[in-house]
Structure formats: C-alpha cells, structure tokens
Amino acid sequence: MPPRPPRCLTAAVVLAALAAGAAGPAPAQTPSAPAPGQGTTPGPTSAQPAPQPGSAAASPAQGSARGPGRGALSSPNADPFPSTYRPFTSVPTVIRNVTVMTAAGPTIRNGAVLLRDGRIAAVGASVDVPAGATVIDGQGKYVTPGIVDDHSHLGVYAAPGGDALSDGNEATNPVTSYVWAEHSVWPQDPQFPRNLAGGVTTLQVLPGSANLIGGRSVVLKVVPSRTVQGMKFPGARYGLKMACGENPKRVYANRGPSTRMGNMAGYRTAWINAEAYRRRWDAFLAGNRQGDPPARDLGNETLADVLRGNILVHNHCYRADEMAQMLDLAREFGYRIRSFHHGVEAYKIADLMARDSVSGSLWADWGGFKMEALDGIRANIALVHAAGARAIVHSDDPSGSQRLNQEAAKALAAGRAAGVAVSEDDAIRWLTINPAWALGLDDRIGSLEPGKNADVVLWSGNPFSVYSRAEKVWVDGALLYDRLDPNRQWRTDFELGYVPAPNAAAGTGQRPAVPAGNGGTR
Ligand SMILES: [Zn+2]
What we know:
The protein is an alpha/beta fold. Helix content is 24%, strand content 17%.
C-alpha cells in the first residue's frame, strides 16, 4: 500500500489538478466559456429569485405575511435553503452503435440510448430516433450512467488549498451537528469542472472528519452556478457526517475526547440529548401548539432528524472492531448507518454490513498511511461486494474523484487477483447505482433505465481502461461537457481571472504560490 498524505488537499495535488485538467490532457484552448446552455448569463439560478424567509406555505408557523418565519419552529425535514437548480437546455439525443453499461442489467453490445426531456427515454439494442434529435455514432465507445461520488470535499476545501478556503472542518467542538456543509461550499471551486470532465455528475460534499459528529452533508449536481442552491440536487436528503477513531482523538487530545472510549461516550451523550429533543418537539408538533414552543437547537435538530429516519448517516470509520461498535451504537439509539466511509477493514465485517444493509464507501488501494489504516487490502471492495453488501468506490480526494473509473478498475483487478468473482457489470455499479443508493437517490439516478434522470457519460473506450476518457457528459439530458469542443468546457470565475489558460501558461514555468493545506479529512 503506498503511503498517502494525511490531508485532503495538498499543494501538490492542487497544482497537479490545476495543471493537468481532469482525466487527461488539458484542452489546447481554454476559452472564457459561458456556462453551457446559458449564453453569457450566470447559471440557471439567474431567473430564479431565491425564496424569501417565511415564504413557504408549508410551514406551520405561517400565520400571516408578517408572522414568524419558518425558523420559528423545529420542523422535521425542514428545507430552509431549497434547491434552485433547473436543468440546462437539452435536445433529444440518441447515442447508437455503442456499448451500453446500464448498471441495471448486463452490458448491451451495439446498443443505443435515447435522452429526451431530461430523462432516459429508451435503452436497448435500438431506439427510435425522434425528428430533430442529435444522433451520435458511438462506435468503439461506451455509455454509462453519470458517476456518483458520495465522499467529496469540493467547494468546502476549494482549490487552491489554503487557510482562506479551508471551510471543511469546524474543528472547534467534538460535536458540531449544527453546521451544514452547504454553507461552506464555494461554487467557483475550479475542481468542479474537472470532476465533470471525469464523468462525475453527482457529489455528496461532506464536512471533514475532525469531529465525532461533523455536521450535515449536501448533495450537489456538478453544474455551473452562482450559488450553492443552484447546484443542490432537488429533493435529495441530507447526510450526517460522523467520524471514528484517530482523527477526533488527535484533534481534541487536549480537551477530550482523547481515547476511543471517550469518542464513544461523546456519541452516546449527543444521541441521548437528541432523543430528548426529538420527543419534546414531536410532542409539541403533534399537539395543539399552544404556548411557547420548546427551544430550538440546531445541532439537536439535525440529530433528531436522523432518529426520525430523515437524514442518512455517513460514518467515517477504518477499523473492523470500531465499525462493529458503531453498528451497536446505531442499534442502541434506533438509527441506521447508510454507509461506512473509508472502511479499510470492511472486508473483516462485510457480513455484518450486509446484515444491517450498510454500504461501504471505499478506496481501491489506499491504506497504511496511519495506524488505523494499516490493515487495508486491495481486494476490500470486491470482498464487500461478494459478501452481499453494497460496495462503492469513493474518492475523498479531488484528483481521485476525476478518475473514479480507474479506481474501480483497480478494485476489479484486485478482486479477480484474489479469486473473487467480479465483473465489469458489478464494477460499474460501484460507481453509479450503489452510491446513488447511499444518497437515497437510486430511484432517480445511477442507472440507465427509462424514466431516470439523463445523467450520462460517453467514454472514448472501455471505462475500465486507463486509456479511456470521458468524452461527453450530460446532466439531466443537457450536454455540459464535451472534450472535443472547447466551447463546452466550463471554467469557473476563479480560473478566468487567476490561472492562465493552459496554452498561455506554457513556457512561463510560473504558478501562484499555494499555501499548505488544512485539517485532516481522512
Ligand atoms: Zn473526507
């Protein structure tokens, strides 16, 4: 196992990412491209004024236009900062004479896909071609669903890494369930377009792992936008970031928790308080709502919504014994863990994960970079899959996220080398439908089936080949990235004014100094 840097963003990673572009050579020309489909106006949010506080009719607090805002009550499943995303302009598109990896069934050789009105309209050996449709000949190429990375810190640890853009770890308290990652996301992070160029269409952006309970995640579409609301996946459930082991121990060594037993006591105390909070509020909301409501508490509000089953738990945890402890903890308080993240020893408890329907969001071959990562093995993902749990290839890394197809290829090869029966049809699920399930979105994305969102990648060849690149990427049927068309390559505001276009930078040998990174996320 190669040692890995103990941070999410290192200067080297940032510089490499900025210099190289995603998953392949940078385009010869990098224009000051407007957002695809948006002319020269900003994003799809421009015509969508942000909702005003207290404007939602759904809030029970809305007595009159001058009444209290929705923040007056602690409402289950509240959505105070709703998505303003609207799909970009799309045209009916047929990709035919192509190998289709659906993530829902066996690969279709010489198949075809029809994208229409933002959805997958048809998939099969052949499809109807509507009048006026764009027809793409995919000979020698592959089509897959858009990749879903369920462990990202894009936007919260934006490039270039430095203190000014270090917004991923609120490392001021072991339990910060009151923070929401979306309030740190910088939509102009130049890593977003590189992710799209790697075929990633959906990201879960998480708080870092300094804390026992780090806060809410946010699920984003990888699309240009002025605001984070314009990137938010409409209707996606929130996640809760929790972290085991060495990180909280290290960060809070002086004030505690400083041991694993201290970690466990910290979680239990938080859940005890949250359960009391949930009971108070559920009783108030179910009653006649007379008198003053219970005091609102942001942290307990998030935890209470986990206990109600509205928020999905994403638990950073490396060691098998600790993951087993976390399964017991979840059972003690009556919540479910949706996914163990990193889980380098997941192979040792894969049967327990399958039993409790916990997925494993894992690396292909990271391990050995700290004590709790010591016993990682390359067949981890394949063994978790073979045990019947949902295996997921995640990144926790801005560069790895641009090449998740290659990460899956490594995991596939390692599994086969270890004698585990795994196929390319299995491996494509590790990148698509399984992470979509971890986010509670498997009914909308993650496979090429009629009715699903048309998040689609056309690869130049087999996506598990190191030579293949994402050539075209559609989000909700709109072509937002085309490796062959410089006008379909999104650049963020940051790059327009700061990073030279690749052709202009050639020969200067000069790059802006990039300060050191920030607190640990893995
Ligand atoms: Zn992380």
